[in-house]
Write a structure and sequence with these properties.
elongated; alpha+beta; single chain; six-stranded antiparallel sheet; 11 strands; 184 residues; three-stranded antiparallel sheet
């Protein structure tokens, strides 16, 4: 009797092990064998837009903000203005100028204001406090005609029209860089 149990038990054990290792399963309704297919339900969606946003959707959502080589923010940042960089240089004479430099970076904002005519030199938060109301009034983009941009900036910043040269470099939020120049 002991041999009989062993004779039936060993093949039954092998059958169960074979069934566990197989991709076939037994349907409880009628004992028919059904092949199970493996289905991968992961949905990976990669979206790369001009704003340097990489979004991977795989049950969890990760948003990675890219920066370019010099550490500046990509355009995924929520910029306070429609530009990431603003550099204005208005010369009145070889020794008198009005300069504004603004640069939005991932590590912070760099702002400088040098006004030789009024003997003003501001850096950091002081410069930003002085320039912020003017930056908020700037309503132009990369498609605005050059002369219109120059006239608008002269008006907003109260630039004396007796300047000899006007140079403006802007890097817009979309990454477009433009230069505006006018000499008298």
């Amino acid at each position: 009797m002991k041999n009989w149990k062993m004779a039936l038990g060993v093949p039954l054990l092998f059958g169960m092990l074979y069934g566990c290792g197989s991709d076939k399963a037994t349907d409880d309704t009628g004992g028919t064998t059904v092949k199970q297919e493996e289905t991968d339900t992961n949905t990976n969606t990669d979206t790369n837009t001009d704003t340097n946003t990489n979004t991977d959707t795989n049950t969890n959502t990760d948003t990675n903000k890219d920066t370019n080589n010099n550490g500046q923010a990509g355009t995924t940042q929520n910029l306070p203005y429609n530009f990431a960089e603003f550099s204005l240089d208005v010369d009145y004479s070889p020794t008198e100028s009005y300069e504004v430099d603004y640069e939005y970076e991932t590590t912070g904002v760099e702002v400088e204001l040098d006004d030789d005519r009024n003997n003003v030199k501001l850096r950091g938060d002081e410069a930003l406090a002085k320039l912020e109301p003017m930056f908020k009034k700037l309503k132009f983009d990369a498609s605005t005609p050059n002369d219109e941009v120059i006239d608008h900036v002269i008006s907003v910043f109260g630039i004396d029209k007796n300047y000899t040269s006007f140079e403006l470099e802007v890097k817009f939020a979309d990454g477009t860089e433009k230069e505006y120049n006018k000499t008298k």
